[in-house]
Amino acid sequence: MLGKAAIANAKLAYHAFEETFTSARFATIKARFSARVQRPLWASTGTKNPAYSDTIYVDSLIGPDTVNTVPPATLDAFRDHGNAAVTITRGLDESKSQLAELESAGVSMNQVTDELEAEGVKSFADAFKVLLDVVDERRKSAVSSINPLADSVAKRLSTLEADSVAARVWSHDPTLWADDEAGQTEVKIRLGWLHSIEDARTRLDGYLSFAKQIHEEGIDRVLVIGMGGSSLTAEVLSSLLAAANIEAKLSLAILDSTDSEQVALAAKNYPPEKSLYILASKSGGTAELLAAFDYFWELSKGNGSRFMVTTDAGTSLEKLAKDRGFRKVFNADPNVGGRFSALTDFGLVPAALLGMDIPKLLNSAEKVKKVSTDVHSAGFALGALLAESALAGRDKLTVISDAPVSAFAGWVEQVIAESSGKHGKGMLPVPLEPLATPEMYGNDRLFVYLRQTGEFDGNVTALRNAGFPVIEFPFMSPYDVGAEFFRWEIAVSIMCHILGINAFDQPDVQDSKLRTIAKITDFQKTGKLADVDLVNINDVKAALNAFVSGAQTGEFFTINAYVPRNKETLDALQSLRVAIREKTKCAVSAGFGPRFQHSTGQFHKGGPNKGLFIQVVYDAQNDMEIPTQGMSFGTLIRAQALGDYEALVAAGRRTLRVLLSSPADLSKLVDALQ
């Protein structure tokens, strides 16, 4: 009887199942109420006794409407030598005889199964209680981690629920973000991101076929030329893959600078004979993109097959692409703004070229979307927390990140700053500020930890123990970023609704652009750029210390550095951030110009007037002319810096301008504060 009782019992159980679900009574219920069969499940069918066949509990239990929870090793064995045939209905009389024989030997299968059922239910109940205890412990920990804000967030979520905010988001109700007609009109054409996942699935074949073409031609590198949200997603995806040691199909970088050194380095690393250039822009007319295009077009000798465009239909950039014979034009959804475009063509064309599994990325995002019909879901809860934090004076969102996922912090920065910094309101994102001990931070901080390796666990624990609110988001895989894109898009939209901000316009960005255009026009007429208010690096000590000492509690510093973005300048800026914080205990953000103008630039002019801005420029030593534009990259970036400075002054911001002799002089600013 060894090895036979369990199989015999299962076959009799299946026989009882068949009698019930093939009966006339069930047929009637099925016809009237669409009733479903309740299928038998054979659990734990691995073979534990080495004397038995390793597939015995699979081979013997195959039949219609059955479920078999096969362990991986058993499944592999079955693939190799199992018997794929309907066996569950065979030998029913033999099974009855075997159970009768057991009964006569004093073994009651009824008693055995009753005991197993009781033990099994208790085991599952105990395991479920452990699970609930873990969930409750984590819930308490999460609430504890935002202790200063927990009550206000709970009340806010109740208010959102009472106001049917979730349903109104999905019905595209513009009154959530704007009271005026013009604002509501803008909102109505900017909510397409809510449906980007479905739209992307319809475009998937186009992404994959284009990527396949590029890979088969042996093009092994891609340079994305664009600003802000149009290019940041590509940078994030490339960085996440590299950090996870996932080999991409090609090398990808972005160019979002007009610094001549940075342009020259991009041209060196991404030459036309080996590269594809993606011009990415919603509007199609940004100065940085057109300057870079003119340069790389001449470098390629007018080879349109090396260029493609991602833009809205009908833009001047689309016309340029068609006139010059570009390889491809991708028309993105016009109802999605640049900073919300991660899951549109702007992010997914680069993803396909990198060789990412796009369905997997979209599935990740869809997990958050599916639950986002309820205000207690991930995105809404985060949005309520951000808003309540800002309303409580904790309006500096400090983003801590483990190194492998640090690029995502830059994406978070742009979506928060450009969406929320308006009408004297908003939350300042402070990404990747070097960590300090808790006493170096004021009560204006909310911390977010993007965790993968746990390298900052000790610092985060210290912050929690000191009473600072800290929220933690784990990254297990590069594909988790799909969920995070959608979570933060929902969150920022809800935060702006609560704060009374239109999340989808950018009223203060244009001022800087118009001032830059005016400077360029003057230069083209006179051959001179009328630069003003510059403090030479050799004379900066007194001015810098006086400027820094003027900061008040709750204010912040921002370093706007119009220098090439590389390891040396990054390290120097990080050191300068630490030096300023040590003197003031203020939050210190930093950005490279003109890159930051398309993200945090909106917050700088439109957000709360709590900022002190240090602008850093230098005279380009190896400048390059921009073909057809009558000026150099050095002139363009200085005009952009000057236009931005004047826009800050016009907005009533306190600003110090510093002229370096070279980017290496950044370290002298640190020395000047000692």
Task: Describe the fold and architecture.
With 674 residues, this protein is α/β, with parallel strands linked by helices. Helices cover 51% and strands 13% of the residues. The strands form five sheets. A five-stranded parallel sheet has the order 4-3-5-6-7, sandwiched between helices.
Q: TL;DR of this structure?
A:
The chain contains 26 helices and 18 strands. 51% of the residues lie in helices and 13% in strands. The mean pLDDT is 94.
Number of helical segments? 26
Number of strands: 18
**Average pLDDT score:** 94
Shape: elongated
For the largest beta sheet, what order do the strands appear in spatially? Answer: 4-3-5-6-7
Helix content: 40-55%
Distance between the termini: 87 Å
User: Percent of residues in beta strands?
Assistant: 5-15%
Briefly note the structural class of the backbone. alpha/beta
Q: Specify the biggest β-sheet.
A: 5 strands, parallel
Task: Report the C-alpha radius of gyration, rounded.
Answer: 31 Å
Question: Which regions are unreliable across 5 or more consecutive residues at pLDDT < 50?
Answer: none
Determine the oligomeric state from the structure.
single chain
Looking at this protein, list some descriptive labels.
single chain, 674 residues, alpha/beta, five-stranded parallel sheet, 26 helices, 18 strands
Secondary-structure blueprint:
Layout (H helix, E strand, L loop, with lengths): L4 H17 L2 H10 L7 E2 L13 H4 L7 E2 L3 H10 L10 H13 L4 H37 L4 H13 L2 H6 L10 H8 L7 H21 L4 E6 L2 H15 L7 E5 L4 H10 L5 E6 L6 H13 L7 E5 L4 H9 L3 E4 L13 H10 L3 H14 L6 H14 L4 E6 L5 H14 L7 E4 L13 E7 L5 H9 L4 E5 L5 H20 L9 H18 L7 E3 L3 H10 L6 E6 L5 H18 L2 E6 L7 H7 L4 E8 L6 E2 L4 E2 H18 L3 E7 L5 H7 L2
Parallel strand pairs: 1-2, 3-4, 3-5, 5-6, 6-7, 8-9, 8-10, 10-11, 12-18, 13-14, 13-15, 15-18
Antiparallel strand pairs: 16-17
Helix pairs in contact: 1-5, 7-17, 10-15, 10-16, 11-15, 11-18, 16-20, 17-20, 18-20, 18-24, 21-25, 23-26
